[in-house]
Every structure is written in C-alpha cells, then in structure tokens.
Amino acid sequence: MLPSYRNLYGIVSLCISVLIFTPVQAYEKLSDETLSSLPRPNSDFDIHNGALLSPILQTRVPGTPGSTAVLNHFADFFQTTLPKWNVEVHNSTSKTPKSKGKDVPFRNFIATRDPPWAQVGDVGRLTLVAHYDSKIEPEGFIGAIDSAAPCAMIMHAMRSIDAALDKKWTALQQQGLDEFVEEVEGIQVIFLDGEEAFAEWTDTDSLYGARALATHWEDQFYPATSEFKTPLSSISMFVLLDLLGAQSPSIMSYYETTHWAYQNLGELEKRFKSLKQFKATSKDPWFIDTEKDVHNLTPSGGVLDDHVPFLARGVEILHLIDFAPFKGFPKVWHTIDDDGEHLDMDTVEDWSMLVTAFAAEWMELEGYFDHPKAASARRDEEHAASEAIRLNKKTEL
C-alpha cells in the first residue's frame, strides 16, 4: 500500500461521495454488559503456537507452499469452527515482474454467512477484508502487521459473533417473522492474495487478487428479480484492515459516506477504554478524525490498497490502516522486523475486540450473546416482534 494524494482514485472517491446517496444502515449499539463480556482471543493469538495467529506468521508469497499452508489454515478454521459458513476460493493468474513470463496463481479466500431463509442476490453483506500474502523481499519477510494480525483479528471476530447470529436468526424464524424482514443482512470475510508488489508498486504490479475479484464480481449477475444486481452491489460496506498491530495506531477517515461508521468505531474505542476492557495502555485516541464533521475530513486520495478496485466500482469503503501524514506508516513497515516478535500483542487483542463489537453492532446482535450472569434476553414474542419492525426500516437518504 502507498499513500496517494494526487491520483485517479482520489477523484473517484470524491465523485462517489458527491453523486451517490448512502442508505442509512441499521446499527444497534451494544450494552456495556455485552461489551465487557465479549470473548478475548487470549492464547489463540500466541505468536508461537496460538491456534489463530501463529499459522499465518510465515512467508506467504503467492504461489508458494507458505501461501498454500495459510489458505488451508483459513479453510480448516471455517470448516471446523464455523461450519455454517459458505467457503469458496476465487482463482486467477497473472504474470509478475519476477515470474519470468510464467503465470503466478492468486487465490482469494471468501467466507459468507447469510440468514438461512435468504435467497441469493437478496442479501446485503458487511464485508471484512484483509490481505494474506507477504512481500517477496526482503527474503524471509513475514508481514505480521501486514497483514497476518488483521486476518487473525477478523477470524476471532467471526467466531465470537457466530452463536449470536444463530440465536437471532432462529428467533426470527421461530416467531415467523423472517418473511417480514425486507432488508436482509449477512456477513462476509475476504482474505485477498497478491496485494503486495513483486518489484515496484504500479497499477499492474500490485493488488492482483483484489483487481481480479472486483472484475469477476462486476461481471457476475444475480437473477433479474434479485434485490441486488451483482455481488459488488450487495456489499453494504467494504471494511479493509491493514497494518494493524503496532502500538498507538493512528487511523484516519477518508470517505464522507462511511464517516458515520468510522465515528462508531471511535465511540467503541472510548467505551472499551472507559470500561477498562482494553489491554493497551496508550491514552492517545486511535481514531484521530472522530470529532471531525463529515465535510471537514482531510481531502486526499487515501492510501492505495486492496479497496481501490472496489472503490472505483462504487463500493462503500471503510479503510482501517495505521497511517497519518504526521507519523507515516508503522516503523516496521516493509522491513524484516515486521514479525511476530514486534507485534504489540495488547494492541492486537484490543483490535480484535473492536472488530468483534463493530460487527455485532452492525448485525444488531445486542441481546443475543450469553452473559455469564444471565443467559440471553429477547426470547419472548414481544422482543422478537420489535426486532422485526426495526430490521424492516426503509432506506433513508
């Protein structure tokens, strides 16, 4: 990824923010009790033998055995831990400046969970994204913040909300309310391959997997009677995590149409800290643009990253990357020191909690988590009915 202040995609983002109206996404805040009881990854993020993170902390250059091993790790996790998710791999090939005329395989991992009654093409999806490949140079480069740790954060978050999704959707079906829910929302995970350049970052030597997937989904059409035209248009928001895991991150807000979601993350950060649920001790805010009005965001093209091919096609983007003009990227960025030993593990765990809480609020799961002192609320018909009414809200401008 590269910072970019004078590029085509900055123009595209400006046009999108001006010309496209944004649906107001239903979004329900979690209670303090729920925030305080969300599961932590704990030993699963151990860099040596943790079940989620350690298998990703290896070289993962596209087309190499390390890349295959990490892809298999993702597949095993979802098939064994989250068996109700639909898993697929999107394959493409491309020549690179280092491949000597040969095609290199790029494999994007996609996992999706939709309400059980939903029809293909009728589901909007919160989409959480990170790239899993690592740079070819320097030799032995691991890429812990870039982006092994973000992948593990997303995995933990999906595992943490899966049972609550089950409870919510089962409750709606048992009350016969699923057929009254017009705006059906699912959730999707994409681990992209080939983000890194093989030689020098250019439009053709970077974002291999993202470019291929965006093109594929743009040309893949749902049935004519579907709510959405293509898989691209069904993405409610494309939330990209990158370069996360260093101490005291600084996250900017780049797009007017998703600033509200950015501000919700900033509020969650404050709430976690006030509840003493963050392990990291830094008092500086992570989301440095939270107090800014949507019209006062710093004008820029953002940072070139995997979201760019999707942004150019009109997808709503929330880019969570540790970068700010006054500090640049994290110190270990694109160096051999970007490994497990240089992660700030308290920050990594806290990020996983933030992603979990954000996804839970987006999917409106308050009341569907089991708390230690009280097993779930909202099991009676009155609460289920109010849930259906809330989910059935019309799109507002």
UniProtKB/TrEMBL annotation:
Gene3D superfamilies: Zn peptidases. Its EC number is 3.4.-.-. Transmembrane segments: none annotated. Residues 1-26 form the signal peptide. InterPro entries: M28_QC, Peptidase_M28, QC/QCL. The keyword RNA-binding does not apply. GO terms for molecular function: glutaminyl-peptide cyclotransferase activity; peptidase activity; zinc ion binding. Residues 376-397 are annotated as: Disordered. SUPFAM superfamilies: Zn-dependent exopeptidases (SSF53187). The keyword Metal-binding applies. Keywords: Acyltransferase, Hydrolase, Metal-binding, Protease, Signal, Transferase, Zinc. Residues 376-385 have a biased composition (Basic and acidic residues). It comes from the Eukaryota. Residues 125-358 form the Peptidase M28 domain. Belongs to the peptidase M28 family. PANTHER family: GLUTAMINYL-PEPTIDE CYCLOTRANSFERASE (PTHR12283), GLUTAMINYL-PEPTIDE CYCLOTRANSFERASE-RELATED (PTHR12283:SF6). This is Peptide hydrolase. It comes from Penicillium salamii.
